[in-house]
Amino acid sequence: MAYSMLDNQKWAIVAVESKDGVVKKLCEDCGEVFCWSPDGQTVFYVSGQPGRIYLLNVTSGEKRELIRHSKYSVIRPSVSSDGRWISFHAQMSPLRRQIFIVPLRDGKAPQESEWIPVTDGSGLDREAFWSPDGNSLYFLSERDGSRCIWVQRLEPKTKRPLGRAFPVYHSHSSHRSLMNLTNSGAAGPAVSRGKLVFAQREITGNIWMIEPQK
Q1: Three-state SS for 133?
Q2: Second label for 103, Cα 20 to 30 Å away, from 8, 22, 195, 211?
Q3: What is the pLDDT of residues 19-33, one digit of tens each?
Q4: Rg for the chain, CA atoms, rounded
Q5: Would you list the DSSP string of 167-214?
């Protein structure tokens, strides 16, 4: 497991060994970490304004910029299970996000002109995460007026969208809703074979009556 922590006014990246719980600082001044490569040798993190995606080799300590947009911040990287593709979204405005996929070739990503658009950037589509087989991309979307979980099928070889995205979980209730999470990333969606795991906040309340004191 890896996480980011503020240390001496800098965002350090720290890893915890799953076997023995040993804590190791991987980087003194990096950014917000999001995911590991499947081989466990690289972590992907976001830093800078506008945000850019970097990779950090945990063995050598090498840091390298991987993805940047010519105009917007790029955040929330997610790597496919085979390590050959990475998804992320660009923050185009407070009400617009666009999800992209790019191939990873020897730890390098192509230029912006080669990015594969998964959504059209007209609404709030974000927090993309891969299916186990790498042939679908799940994401949070507010295209129907609520924050729900949608999925886009992908062509297996090129990862270009196949058909239109469709919802897999609607969250339209004010009592139990993904919209109740201030940070959409807190939903933490994850998918395994036949299962979808995510967080949503439940809001309850009561009405009380008292007799006024005379």
Answers
A1: coil
A2: 195
A3: 777 888 888 888 999
A4: 19
A5: EEE----SSEEGGG-SSGGGG--EEETTEEE---EE--------PPP-
Residues of the chain with pLDDT under 50: none
Which two tokens mark 20? Answer: 């023995």
pLDDT digits (tens, 9 = 90+) for 160-191: 999 999 999 888 877 777 767 766 666 667 77
The C-alpha atoms of residue 209 and residue 171 are separated, in whole angstroms, by 32
Q: How far lies 56's CA from each of 8, 13, 143, in Å?
A: 20, 10, 35
d(CA 96, CA 91): 7
Which residue matches tokens 């993190």? 45
Structure tokens at 53: 């995606």
